[in-house]
Amino acid sequence: MPKRKTKKKKLKMLQKKPEKLIDKDDVRLDGRKLNELRPVKIEVGVLGNADGSAYIEQGKNKILAAVYGPKEVHPRHLALPDRAVLRCRYHMAPFSVDERKSPAPSRRELELSKVIREALEPSIFVEYYPRTSIDIFIEVLQADGGTRCAGITTASLALADAGIPMRDLVVACAAGKVDGCLALDLMDVEDKLGEADVPLALMPNLNAITLLQMDGSLTIEEFEKAINLALEGCKQLYTLQKEALKLKYVTVKEDLEE
Amino acid sequence: MPLFYEKKQLVTPGDLIAEDNYIAGDNTYKDDGKIYASRVGLVDYEARKVHVVALKAFYVPYVGDTVIGKVIEVTTGGWIIDINAPYFAMLRASDVIDRPFKPQTSDLPSIFDVGDIIIAQIVAYDRTRDPLLSVREPGLGKTMRGQLVEITPTKIPRVIGRKGSMVSMIKRETGCQITIGQNGLILISGKTPENERLAVMALHKIEDESHTSGLTDRVTEMLRKKKEDVEHA
């Protein structure tokens, strides 16, 4: 299949350092504008064995999230008497990146697991089910930058799909500085070669930020602009997220009405 | 007193349903005078009370419920039973044995063993302790035959129907005995496997289409059609 070969070559070409990340018309490497999200596809309830699940494709990112619980904590001594314990594992598949990644959890994955857990915890009524655990698994099948944000968005949907009572859905999106311009939803090249990256997670109805990080350097004004840009992105993503969650039930209804 | 959704409208967690003078019912919460949904479901309200009928949830034990569970461990004083809830349930030996219970002489596995399916009632539960079961009522105890179907516990009321109209219809049409556990497990035992298969199909249809109206009629229609197909074949 010669067609496929050329496609792969193109992918490799992108990995080489391009001269310019943003051309003079403010168009990015993948043809997006500065304030444009990557194309997003979300699906809810994709796995049969987990209590709740969701899948996202955001640009070249492909991420699966699954949720179990609330259930008895194992090992027993980790149980808390007044609330549920939330456990989260963010993991990248060995084939998710250019060069094979060791499947063992790296320092980065461990840290992201914690960060994601803390971004999701405020949205869950953990105090409703003491002495239980809620387990979240985020599996990155293909990575292209911004996986922690896409992971949070997906995991939140999986939690809602599992029927766990929540204050709000959590949406996450990053903004950053590339070639001196502020840009929304950075992909891998832009993240690695750009100047800064600001991932942000939001509970849109409560207007509460549950995660805010920054990597790189920005002036105070730029930082504020980046946050507003990321918030805009979150709001756009939220409508998609909500649609995906509703779609599962709306389609059954429509099929019957036909 | 604004209300932002009509009855039977689909909401997702975090959706603002009502403001001010309303009372937050099931699957909703109140924060700063505003009522939000906490689960995916359909909005419903009676007078000033707003609630959401969840489309998917897990079973939370409730005193008085009849549940179906599986024995997962035999201990010295009783059994530990998985009732498909966040907590395992306990069944005490003294509840089952009529004579005073002596751990030295009683052979508990001969009464209920690991893997047995048990129909029981919840007699005590609060969130600080695991639920306690009892089998001291007619119709409760170990089941020897039939097959189990699992559906989302929130859809159990739909399976029962108004005044039991749905189950009695399925029982009538398929000739199966149906025992419903409030925890989402349903035991079906019929004269032939074919009858059981029909009942299972009906239950899955109810689960998939629980949020639509006119369901009892559609299920009846489906069952009759399938029965005819079988007779003609």
User: Could you tell me the number of beta strands of chain A?
Assistant: 10
Any idea what the CATH superfamily of the largest domain in chain B is called? K Homology domain, type 1
Q: According to CATH, what is the topology of the largest domain in chain B? A: Ribosomal Protein S8, Chain: A, domain 1
Number of helices of chain B: 6
Sketch the major β-sheet of chain A: 5 strands, mixed
Domains of chain B, number: 3
What is the correct CATH architecture of chain A? 2-Layer Sandwich
Runs of chain A in which pLDDT lies below 50 for 5 or more consecutive residues are: 1-8
Number of domains of chain A: 1
Which percent bin holds the helix content of chain A?
A: 25-40%
Structural class of chain B: alpha+beta
Q: What pattern of helices and strands is seen along the backbone of chain A?
A: HEEEEHEHEEHEEEH
Radius of gyration of chain B: 21 Å
Distance between the termini of chain B: 60 Å
Helix content bin of chain B: 10-25%
The SSE string of chain B, one letter per element, is: EEEEEEEEEEHHEEEEHHEEHH
Q: What is the CATH architecture term of the largest domain in chain B? A: 2-Layer Sandwich
Biggest protein-protein contact in the assembly:
A-B, 34 and 30 residues
Rg result of chain A: 19 Å
Strand residues, percent of chain B:
25-35%
Explain what you see.
The complex is a heterodimer of chains A (258) and B (233). Chain A has 258 residues and is an alpha+beta fold. Chain A has a single domain, classed as 2-Layer Sandwich (Ribosomal Protein S5, domain 2), CATH 3.30.230.70. Chain A has 5 helices and 10 strands. In chain A, the strands form 2 sheets. Chain A has a 5-stranded mixed sheet. In chain A, strands 6, 7, 8, 9 and 10 form a 5-stranded antiparallel sheet that branches. In chain A, α2 links the parallel β4 and β5. In chain A, α2 crosses α3. Chain A is globular and about 55 Å long. By secondary structure, chain B is α+β, with helices and mostly antiparallel strands. Chain B has 3 domains: 45 residues, RNA polymerase II/Efflux pump adaptor protein, barrel-sandwich hybrid domain (OB fold (Dihydrolipoamide Acetyltransferase, E2P), Beta Barrel), CATH 2.40.50.100; 78 residues, Beta Barrel (OB fold (Dihydrolipoamide Acetyltransferase, E2P)), CATH 2.40.50.140; 86 residues, Ribosomal Protein S8, Chain: A, domain 1, CATH 3.30.1370. In chain B, the strands form 4 sheets. In chain B, strands 8-9-10-12-11 form a 5-stranded mixed barrel. Chain B has a 4-stranded mixed sheet with strand order 1-6-7-3, with no helix packed on it. In chain B, α4 packs parallel to α6 and α5 runs antiparallel to α6. The longest helix of chain B is centred in the C-terminal third of the chain and has 18 residues. The chains are: A alpha+beta (258), B alpha+beta (233). Chains A and B meet through β3 and α5 of A and loops of B.
